[in-house]
Design brief:
The complex is a heterodimer of chains A (566) and B (353). Chain A is mainly α and 566 residues long. Helices cover 73% and strands 2% of the residues of chain A. The chains are: A mainly alpha (566), B mainly alpha (353).
Chain lengths: 566, 353
């Protein structure tokens, strides 16, 4: 948008870019793979939805960037973008039907081309339909841009919710049908594959209406809550807390086995994330070898409890303190050498440490003690009296307890003298030292605390899985955890939960698209950093800093936040 | 004198130096006992060294990309390993086609040059797009932000190529002209290893001369020294940064084909390990320093291939070759602790991160 000329008609340029994106989406096989699933039964499949949303996004961008803002020009730009995009797609089909591209692009199958032509036998008819669809998408997005903000927001939210509901049908439909009173609703909204037409319409109207109402009236409700007197406000908070606790307790039974399993994985990442949050988020020490402590916790429990190694036969609860203690010791031991390093160098050194530990565990040299590549099996389950934590639904409570404990500790630590020292160190080491903070002790405490939490998580992981392998502890885990806390918002504890749900939970739910899981994940990380670098649920100070240091009017939202109210 | 030393050393320093000392003693001991045991003949050692040189020159070429980008943007370009992968993977289809049509056997030089050009062009394109789309909007953002972006871009590119070309291993065609070996007295060099060493060496010299002798190279160096001042001198900083990515991409693309010739296969995940190693090499040499990256790469290759047998075999460790990566990373950590500026680098030694 930073061109000097006031006249701009980006329809063609954006159309070409968007078209390349659509062709790429088709060639990497996403369209065909997603076509297996319908969003709205018999109407639109998920692959088509993917293309539709991409095309609509690009056409919308074309409309937004058009200068001057005459309605005719805006519509023309959006329609041009739409037609150019679909023209490129038609070109792909034409090329694909004349030459065999499959030797290079394995996904350029006849089935894909057939689907792109809306299952028309004749290329001409299919291409005409395709171009028409492009023009229609462009026209409607152009119209959308011209509508008042309230209507636009309601429509966009409604459509996106439909897409999400269709995507998560395997999650929503079984949960609804498992609950007596909700079962008929579920049956009505979802047909065999995808939403039913009537269900989709109802859902759309409900959500669009709800959004419109909240946009119009939401502020007054929020203000009412803020202005409430202390007494009722506290009672409201207490009630919300109780409700949350109740939901957390019944959650695994309401969700069933598979979703509980997903929840336990998310729980493990929350534990790990809370630990790394102390090291990276509070103390500002970028640690890429964090998985080492997770491995140490797991292996300590494995060695101490497993009969396969046979040197010790402890129960899980006897081994747990050792796991945490070894984690803390390892944290200090790995912390001492890197005390003087900062920033990137610290990241590289810790990455090196993490890899060294994994390679040592994997090697034959240490096999009699650590099991080598075969790992260690038959790890003891946690037991309280008669109850054994074996199934995901039971392990969930173990993790819930762990998360609450660790969350409480790190919440209290954050507001303590030590927490303030960490944050001072994060902002500026030299100034912090000048203020009398003992950098050595403060840094080592951060490493030790983080490592202890990680070891706890590792111990639970080992007992949950029942066996440990060196391959479970590669550098990708460290990077994943780092991404969890950054996506959630650095230094923010609710952010860790949000980040773990978004980065770990969502991909688990979309497992059938396993091939494209990491692709979407990578694209989401990039997009996130470009559009919202402070994270999904940022810490207050952090958000302020990020938006003061960059241009204050970079995005309309930031501009609105920076402007004084009233 | 002793008192003076004690005052200058903090307790952590003492711990560090004693760890370093123990490691040094272990290395000397291991080396001595390996040599006394005499499991390996001189012939073996020469083979190890040549393999290490070939491996190391590939690391060195990849490391150039890391080090140049770090020099200019102060960021670790995690996605560089995918830049490295994209080239040879795309060029594979050309190589396979040449192989089927017989061109690879009848005109090995022409077809190899074509394969190299395709690979380098692809890598350059990916590198430039990466910079344009993912990194350029983030100038001036806090340091962690581009790092995460790079990690995300790395995943994205890996799986885009997996989607495009498939998830299996593709066997690179065997080039009959590169079969066999040269013999020079006691030294024998496999022909493809010779090609790797010579080609990588020539490219490195060419790139180094480019940065030292040409006006463009001068502009590049000045941008990595000080962006604002360069802009004031009339240098188009954005263009120079693009240029850095282009050069790094070209080097990575060439390295990719050499890697494929050496290990005879391509795969969408092939960039990860060489990428981390090359990064280690860049740090070893002193990150931001181009000759340092070359030296670091070759040094790392040598230590990896000679080290396990030399240091560990004598200590009676089972299957020492499994620990070659551990040696590489231990060396990385030791360099970072005792000489964080790397072997050659001094510019960034006291740089605050």
């Amino acid at each position: 948008m930073d061109t000097t000329s006031t006249k701009e008609f980006p329809g063609l340029r954006l159309g070409v870019i968007g078209g390349v994106c659509l062709v790429l989406l088709s060639l990497i096989g996403m369209v065909h793979a997603f076509n297996q699933r319908e969003i709205v039964s018999e109407v639109i499949s998920m692959g088509q939805t993917l293309l539709l949303f991409t095309a609509a996004f690009v056409a919308y961008m074309a409309a937004v960037r058009t200068r001057p803002k005459a309605p005719g020009r805006i519509l023309a730009a959006a329609v041009t973008a739409g037609v150019v995009m679909t023209a490129l797609l038609a070109l792909l089909v034409l090329i694909g039907q004349t030459v065999n591209m499959r030797q290079v692009f394995i996904n350029a199958s006849p089935a894909l081309f057939n689907a792109l032509l809306f299952y028309q036998e004749n290329f001409g008819a299919g291409a005409a339909l395709l171009l028409l669809a492009g023009a229609a998408v462009g026209f409607f997005t152009g119209l959308l841009h011209l509508m008042p903000a309230l209507v636009r927001r309601a429509l966009i939210t409604g459509l996106c919710s439909l897409a999400v509901a269709g995507m998560l049908q395997d999650l929503i439909a079984p949960v609804l049908s498992a609950w007596g009173p909700f079962a008929p609703i579920g049956e009505w909204i979802f047909s065999g594959n995808g939403l039913s037409v009537s269900g989709a319409l109802t859902l759309f109207i409900l959500i669009a209406g709800g959004t419109a109402a909240w946009t119009a009236k939401g502020d007054t409700v929020r203000h009412k809550v803020i202005r409430m007197e202390a007494g009722p406000k506290r009672r409201l908070k207490l009630a919300a807390l109780m409700a949350a606790a109740l939901v957390l307790i019944v959650l695994p039974h309401a969700l069933g086995l598979f979703l509980s399993e997903v929840l336990t994985i998310v729980g493990l990442y929350i534990l790990l994330g809370l630990g790394l949050n102390i090291v990276v988020g509070f103390a500002g020490l970028l640690d890429l070898g964090y998985v080492a402590f997770f491995a140490i916790g797991s292996y300590t429990v494995a060695i101490l409890t497993s009969p396969e190694i046979g040197r010790f036969t402890m129960t899980f609860w006897q081994a747990l303190p050792f796991a945490i203690i070894f984690g803390v010791i390892a944290g200090v031991m790995l912390g001492v050498p890197v005390l003087k390093m900062r920033g990137d160098y610290l990241a590289i050194a810790t990455l090196g440490f993490g890899e060294i530990i994994r390679i040592l565990v994997l090697s034959d040299a240490l096999r009699p003690w650590l099991g080598g590549a075969q790992g260690i099996g038959k790890i003891a389950k946690a037991q309280i009296g008669e109850m054994e934590f074996a199934t995901p639904q039971e392990v969930y409570y173990l993790l819930l307890a762990g998360c609450i404990l660790v969350g409480f500790i790190s919440w209290r630590l954050r507001d303590s003298r030590l927490g303030r020292a960490w944050m001072a160190m994060r902002e500026d080491e030299d100034v912090a030292q000048a203020m009398g903070i003992n950098l050595v002790a403060t840094k080592l405490l951060a490493f030790a605390t983080g490592a202890g939490f990680s070891a706890l998580s590792g111990a639970i992981f080992a007992s949950k899985i029942g066996s440990v392998y060196p391959h479970s502890f590669n550098v990708m885990i460290s990077i994943n955890i780092l991404c969890v806390i950054i996506v959630g918002g650095m230094g923010s504890m609710p952010g860790v939960v949000v980040g773990a749900l978004a980065l770990v939970g969502l991909p688990e739910l979309l497992r059938e698209f396993a091939e494209y899981r990491l692709l979407v994940y990578g694209a989401a990380l990039v997009a996130m950093m470009l559009l919202r670098p402070e994270g999904l649920w940022p810490e207050a100070t952090h958000q302020r800093e990020l938006h003061d240091s960059t241009e204050p009017a970079a995005t309309p939202a930031a501009g609105a936040a920076a402007a004084p109210p009233g | 004198m002793v008192k003076n030393l004690r005052e200058r050393m903090s307790p952590t320093d003492i711990v560090m130096w004693s760890i370093g000392g123990i490691l040094a003693i272990l290395i000397v001991w291991g080396t001595a006992s390996t040599i006394i045991k005499g499991t390996y003949s001189a012939r073996h050692w020469i083979d190890f060294v040549i393999f290490g040189l070939a491996q190391g020159s590939i690391y060195a070429l990849i490391a150039m990309g890391y080090t140049m980008v770090y020099g200019v943007l102060r960021m670790i370009n995690f996605a560089h390993s995918e830049v490295f992968m994209s080239g040879p993977y795309t060029a594979y289809f050309f190589a396979a086609y040449f192989h089927r049509s017989g061109l690879l056997d009848s005109h090995p030089v022409i077809s190899l040059v074509l394969v190299f050009l395709v690979s380098m062009a692809t890598s350059v394109m990916i590198a430039v797009l990466l910079e344009r789309i993912a990194y350029r909007p983030l100038r001036g953002a806090p340091r962690l932000v581009p790092l995460i972006t790079a990690i995300g871009a790395s995943f994205f590119l890996q799986y885009v190529f997996r989607g495009l070309y498939g998830s299996g291993f593709q066997a690179y065609p065997v080039i009959s002209a590169l079969e066999g070996q040269f013999t020079l007295g006691p030294i024998r060099v496999l022909k493809f290893q010779a090609l790797v060493i010579v080609a990588a060496g020539l490219l490195m010299v060419a790139l180094y001369q480019f940065t030292q002798r040409t006006r463009l190279g001068k502009a590049l160096r000045s941008v990595s020294e000080d962006k604002e001042a360069s802009a004031l001198m009339g240098i188009d900083v954005d263009r120079m940064i693009s240029m850095t990515f282009m050069i790094g991409g070209a080097a990575a693309g060439a390295a990719g084909v050499l890697y494929a010739i050496m290990f005879k296969q391509v795969h969408f995940f092939m960039g990860f390990i060489p990428g981390i190693k090359a990064f280690t090499a860049a740090v070893l040499g002193g990150i931001g320093n181009i000759p340092g990256a070359m030296l670091g790469g070759i040094f790392l290759g040598l230590v990896e291939s000679v080290g396990p047998s030399l240091f560990l075999d004598g200590l009676g460790i089972v299957a020492p070759y499994q620990l070659k990566d551990a040696i590489a990373f231990t060396m990385l950590v030791l360099v970072l602790i005792f000489r964080p500026s790397g072997i050659l680098g001094e510019r960034l030694a006291v740089k605050k991160a």
